[in-house]
Amino acid sequence: MDLRSLRYFLAVVEHGGVTKGAAALYISQPSLSQTIRRLEAEAGVRLLDRSGPAAVPTTAGLEMAEVARRVLAELDNARERVHRVTNLSVGRLVVTTASTLSVYPLTPIVAALRRRHPGLEVHVRNAGTGPSVLDSIQRNTAEIGVLDLPLEDPRWAVRPLPREEVVLVTAAHGRDGESVARESLGAFDLGVATVDLDTSSELGALLAATASRARVRTAHRQLLWEVVAAGVVSTVMGRRSAGQVLPGAAVRPLEPPLWRTPGLVWRPGALSPAGEALLAAAADVFDRGVDE
């Protein structure tokens, strides 16, 4: 019993006979009659009473017609829902990120994505560490991840993003531009966010090395940014991120310089339309300079 047979039978019922039903479907009457007889054979009951001038549904036929209406209506609704998800008028995308990459590069990417597809929900989850990002994707709790590269594993598809310099950030009255030796960081009153102590990345390892001497340790990154802005402590973070969350703060490069390259990562061949749209948004922002 297929969907075409149900549509054909419903046309007979709704148009008052095989002749009018065939005309409405733009098929021949014998072809329609053959389809209805095959449906009756599969159902094991007579669906049409053919004793009069026009075939009319039997009691079983009326019941079959109601079933056909419900099935076809659900199919049409399902197609519409799939269409809306495919064209991104609705939908949901889950992205997971390493802690220190929660501002850059995701902020401009998510902003560009939402401008293009305002009906799309974007959920960003903090996985903490790079390995946890991969684990989240592997367990299907997220579709795309953001972590520090390189990632030398052929099981993953990777889209590198522009690198970011790691700097010491101080209050606005600090000496902007003067470099700081990495081994001298302990001489500063530092603040760290404990969620950022990811030793799988070079920045996370540097933060972990300074954490024992930190004057402020907090699980709340926003609090850290506030106390840096107030001049209470300094912190180590990406230059682009500092420009977004601490505008006007003084930034001092490290010596030797420290750069990080973030990347988008996903399982090859597993992206939804929403995931593909996020990659397109990243290309617009970083390759073509749109909406950055």
Automatic annotation (TrEMBL):
Keywords: Activator, DNA-binding, Transcription, Transcription regulation. Residues 1-58 form the HTH lysR-type domain. Pfam families: HTH_1 (PF00126), LysR_substrate (PF03466). PROSITE patterns: HTH_LYSR. It comes from the Bacteria. Belongs to the LysR transcriptional regulatory family. This is LysR family transcriptional regulator.
